Amino acid sequence: MKYLKFTHVDSVTGISVAAEPARNGPVFPAVAGLVFVWARESKYPTNTPELFGTCPDSSATQIDGVLGLFVQADFESMQADELNARAAKVASGKHITKLAFRNRFTTAEKVTLEIASLDNPAATMAQRQQAAGLRVALKDQENAQYIDLSRADTRAGVEMLEAAGLIAIGRAAVILDAPVTEVERFRG
């Protein structure tokens, strides 16, 4: 059995999509007995998908669309790496830039947070501690590489703002759970 990496070819011309778009629709290369096993989905979207499969040892593989042959151990190792990459991509799906996180708050909410973070020496110790806690949280966000909307402490912090009346009821869910756009996504 052969283990191979391949991509689509044009259904009429047989030319690989690595060379030019499949104007007549994409199909697998004409490898006898080709069986698709997995795709490198962690690299999607892409114009040249990397597909992996097997074929009998007797099959000709020196054709357009076949990108490489591998021994079984390397094929399985690449598949394991792909599964790990997919898992990491899913985990990073809720990672947004610091600016994107700030922009999920309205201007009025940001002003309210800035005012609430000011230290008032005449306030009670509890009020001063709450203001200090807010300053600490804002500083942590400022120094973060990105904001992970799925982290428990991120979620608790935004929910605390709602509970304290610093943002309106229901806003925490909107801030934390709105779909992450491509513009917001952290790409570090």
List strands and helices in order, with pairings.
Layout: E1 2-6, E2 9-10, E3 26-27, E4 35-39, E5 51-55, E6 66-70, H1 72-91, E7 95-96, H2 98-103, H3 107-116, H4 125-143, E8 147-148, H5 152-163, H6 171-177
Antiparallel strand pairs: 1-5, 1-6, 2-3, 4-5, 7-8
Helix pairs in contact: 5-6
Give your account of this protein's structure.
It is built from six helices and eight strands. The protein is α+β, with helices and mostly antiparallel strands and 188 residues long. It has a four-stranded antiparallel sheet, covered by helices on one side. Helix 5 runs antiparallel to helix 6. 16% of the residues are buried.
Low-confidence stretches: none
Strand order of the largest sheet: 4-5-1-6
What distance lies between the first and last C-alpha atoms, to the nearest angstrom? 40 Å
* Main pleated-sheet profile: 4 strands, antiparallel
Structural class by sheet pairing and helices: alpha+beta
